[in-house]
Amino acid sequence: MVPPDDGRLVGTESKVQVHLVLRPPPGSPCLEETAREVTRTREFWDIEKYGQTFAASAGDLEVVRSFAREHHLKVVSEQPLWRTVTLEGQSTDLRRAFSVTLRECPKEAKHFRPRIRPMPLKDELSGVVEWIFGLERLWQNQQPLPPLALASVHPAREPVDWSGDWAQSSEQAPWSFLPPPRLAELYDFPREFQGEGVCVGVLTLLGDYLPSDMERFFAELDMPMPDIRRVGVGHLGKGSDDWANLEVTMDVQVTASCAPKARTAVYFPDARSYEDVTAWTYFKVYAMALFDTENRPHVLTLSAGLPEDLPGIWVQGEADILEELFMAAAILGVTICLPSGDSGSFYPISQGMFSAPSLVYYPGSSPWVLCCGGTSLEVKDGRVVDEVVWNRLCNNMNLIYGKVGSPANLGSSTGGVSTYFLRPEWQERVPGMPEATLYDFTEWVFSKPRVFRGRGCPDVSAHADFLMGYRILVKGVHRYGGGTSASAPLISALLARVCEGLGSKGQPRRLGFLNPLLYELQLDRKERICRPIVQGNNGGYSASPELGWNACTGLGALLGEPLLNALKKYSRPARSEQPSAEVLEDGEELPVHDQQDGKWRERPRGEAQQRPPVPWEHAHLPGDGEGASQVGQRGELGRAQRVLASASMKPPSLELPRVPGRERREGRDSSPLRLQELGREEAQGREDDDGREHSQGDQGDEVGQRTAREPHHLSVPRV
Q1: Which of 291, 294, 347, 399 is the most interior residue, by most CB within 10 Å?
Q2: At 209, is the pLDDT very low, low, confident or very high (cuts 50, 70, 90)?
Q3: Last residue of a domain, which of 564, 589, 616?
Q4: CATH number of domain containing 305
Q5: Do 126 and 156 fall into the same domain?
Q6: What is the total count of domains within the chain?
């Protein structure tokens, strides 16, 4: 990112902090393969075992300390479990240490320090450091973007005076709200289980809540005050940052009221304003929660995200590092629920015609998280009579915080196709899943058609419509919450109650990475764990009764009791709870695996039978069979290459580095710090490994070709 011409070099007196992410310790197992294996066996690790295996090595930490001393930098903190070291120093020392130029770019009294040159690592850090946070910022048009569409406050100004003669509506106000526990009832949360023994982590980027609001909110619901704990330092947002207080308060109130006996741990990363929210903030708050040895959360939710490929926001390298944390979550048995976004199938990146490309939100688009979309419920006489795709794009509003605001719409469920991640195998059997498309349109002439078979978003959904909002209480005032910022914490509360329901002897059971199982149960085993959404659209994609998944609401609205019952049906006790004998008691009705034809049948009463392998315990992953020896030799399979496939592109090599998803084709700079600007320019003619030049526009037969090995092949066995 090149700053404006009026940018000036950061002064020598200015101190800057950077955060180095180190490699896993030499000799440790492949992180991604470990996550796959744990997902297959459902034998989750505790934090201590994870630390013994994957914490930064003492030798690598000493390398960084020595580097800091040599370049007059101060070691502020070391987090071996996170594999991070924070360094601080004068900007001139940082420039010399990392071969970068920092410029300070004033814009509306705000200052940013974008990195404007590549960052080759010094020899002593090469191979030890995977990424550095802090030398670039989340940035667009010299202004940081807020964490989600709900909070997307445009440049501050007075509320819009819409032109024309606007008359006060004589009809009854079109908005209403429901308390969150009522929505839990409408989604059939298990009544018998309230989340006892479970911890739900509510992650924040900015803002805080008032204890007085919590006391009054739960008193009005006639509920005892739940166990809500604070981790880290939070700061109430002020002025235009006040939206963050609304967001945090809604997330906590929805989660805690819908899983009232669970412990709700709220994580604060010590951000004071928009300017403090960077990719490092995301990394920090996830790491705080995943490696919290006191609360050990079962489920995490964060109402935040930004579109992939939004100019100056995410870069692939940052996503790669966050993905390592999401793999760690799978190993630890932590389920992560993230919003799909609130802008429909597109996101406006500038003013003018054709300026809103189809983009999905990261990190909700990660194949290692549960992506939560939005619906609109219609309730009559206390019952759900209809549920459709949430789409209020045609409803205008003034989005106002304090005395400033901006024109906006009432939002829609974001969905579509990722261009960061290839389609995971558990979505390969989904009928009608779209592909991302890209064309060049040069002076009104089309050329270079490309497609990308990416991960589809969202996975599941819940109510998100502000016009029948979640009743929350902030600063003593009832307010209307909504968006996928509300559906994600609602679904996290549902899963907390399912954790308790699957446990035994007072001990809840972790669910871990659930996506493959949800798709198998809903689409293949017809368990109806989701209420299909068959009407509506989000601008570019539509729901249909013919398809079992759509790019608006995923599999549909997740339902609590059906999910719990389905998991019980295909589950077995945890290893510590299993009987010593492998023979089931007579009369216990569990599915039996017929080894002859590979099909399932229900065992009749009275028939003693060995416990069968079931999908809850044994997920099929790559390496189970064909190609297994190659996987074992190669180690890391790698995640999706970001670049869009085109006719001219030779499939990238399978020999990928330890950090999965990092694009390093032959002849490229393999520095882990090189920003991978591989999108549109990759579609232009390049020499392949044989040195031959390809033409882009005349090889349509090869469009979309990819490597045979695709990432995240996690599914349960076919029936």
Answers
A1: 347
A2: very high
A3: 564
A4: 3.40.50.200
A5: no
A6: 2
pLDDT of 110 strictly over 60? no
Same domain? For 257 and 332 the reply is yes
- The reply to whether 180 and 292 lie within a common domain is yes
Report the alpha-carbon distance of residue 146 to residue 143 in Å, rounded. 10
Residues 250 and 189 in one domain: yes
- Give the whole-angstrom CA distance, residue 432 versus residue 39: 27
**Confidence band for 91, pLDDT divided at 50, 70 and 90:** confident
425 occurs within a structural domain: no
Judgement on whether residues 90 and 194 belong to the same structural domain of the protein: no
Question: Can the peptide bond before residue 458 be classed as cis, meaning omega within 30 degrees of 0?
Answer: yes
Residue 673 has pLDDT above 70, yes or no: no
The lowest-confidence range among 11-15, 41-45, 358-362 is 11-15
Q: Judge whether residue 179 has pLDDT over 90.
A: yes
Residues 403 and 475 in one domain: yes
CA distance 710 to 454: 10
Distance CA 336, CA 302 (A): 8
Q: Do the Cβ atoms of 649 and 685 come closer than 8 Å?
A: no
Say how far apart CA 521 and CA 234 lie, in whole Å.
40
Hey, how many other C-beta atoms are within 10 angstroms of the C-beta on 674? 18
DSSP H stretches of helix in 291-408: 316-332
Confidence label for 572 from pLDDT (cuts 50, 70 and 90)? low
In a domain, 648, yes or no: no
As a whole number of angstroms, the distance between CA 406 and CA 156 comes to 7
Note the pTM of the prediction, 2 decimals. 0.78
Give domain status of residue 662, yes or no. no
Cis ω on the peptide bond leading into residue 363 (within 30° of 0)?
Answer: yes
pLDDT cut 90: percent of the chain above it: 55
Task: Tell me, yes or no, whether 322 and 204 share the same domain.
Answer: yes
Tokens of 279: 């990719």
- Pairwise CA distance, residues 700 & 554, whole Å: 30
Q: Residue 201 falls within a domain, yes or no?
A: yes
Q: Which domain does 105 fall in, by range?
A: 8-133
Is the pLDDT at 141 greater than 50, yes or no? no
DSSP H helical ranges for 272-335: 279-290, 316-332
User: Which two tokens mark 231?
Assistant: 């981790």
The string of DSSP letters for 229-288 reads EEEEE-B---GGGGHHHHHHHHHHHHHHHHSTTSEEEEEEE---SGGG-SHHHHHHHHHH
Q: Are residues 260 and 223 in the same domain?
A: yes
Average pLDDT over every residue of 142-155? 36
- Provide the mean pLDDT of the chain: 76
Reported as a pLDDT band with limits 50, 70 and 90, residue 95 is confident
Amino acid identity of residue 227, one-letter, is D
Round to whole Å and give the CA distance between 306 and 274: 14
- Does residue 675 sit in helix, strand or coil? coil
